[in-house]
Amino acid sequence: MNISELIQVHSIGYRLQDVKVNFVYDLKIEAPTVSVESKQGEIMSVSRWVAEVLSAEKLVQVQDTDMVVALKQAVMKENVQGDFDLSTLELDFYIKVNSFTQRLPQEDRDKIESMLNSLIRKRQGKIIRLADSSKMTSDLAKKLTIEERTLFDYIHNNSTEFKKQILGDKN
Q1: N or C: which end of the chain has fewer CB within 10 A?
Q2: CATH 3.40.5.50 for the 3-63 domain, yes or no
Q3: CB–CB of 87/74 below 8 Å?
Q4: Which H helix or E strand runs over 127?
C-alpha cells in the first residue's frame, strides 16, 4: 500500500469517529445510513463526516479540539527535544490538523501552514538522522505519525541499500 492510500485509509477512519456538535436549528434528517433529529441548542455526537456536511450548511457548530493550540504545543515540545529525540505525536495528528485547517478562513490557514511547515522541517531532519542510523523501534514508532512512519521506512530502506552498494553485504 503506498503512502497516499495509507493516508486515505486513516483519513476515512478519522472521519468515521464521533464528534460533538451544537445544533443551530431544529433539524430532522432521514437518510439510508443516517438519522438525525434534534432541537436548536442541543448537543449531540455524530460521525465527523456528518458533522462536516452539517457544518458546511451552517446547521451545526462542531465542538472539536482546537488544533491551533495542539500544533503550537507540538512545535514547542519538538523545539526542546534533542537532535535525535522526537516528541510524541498522535498517529493521525497531521490528518487532524489538515481537517481542522479546511474549516478556517484563508488568512488563518496561512498562519497554521507556517507553523506546520516549521514542525515538519524539524521532525523531518530528526527522522532522516534516525532512519539513517538505526531500525524502527517500538518506542520510536509510538512517537511517529502514519506519514512519518512511512518516511522513516523509506529512508531507512534506501540508506541500507545505498550502504550495501558501496560496502557489499558486510555488516
Answers
A1: C
A2: yes
A3: yes
A4: helix 106-133
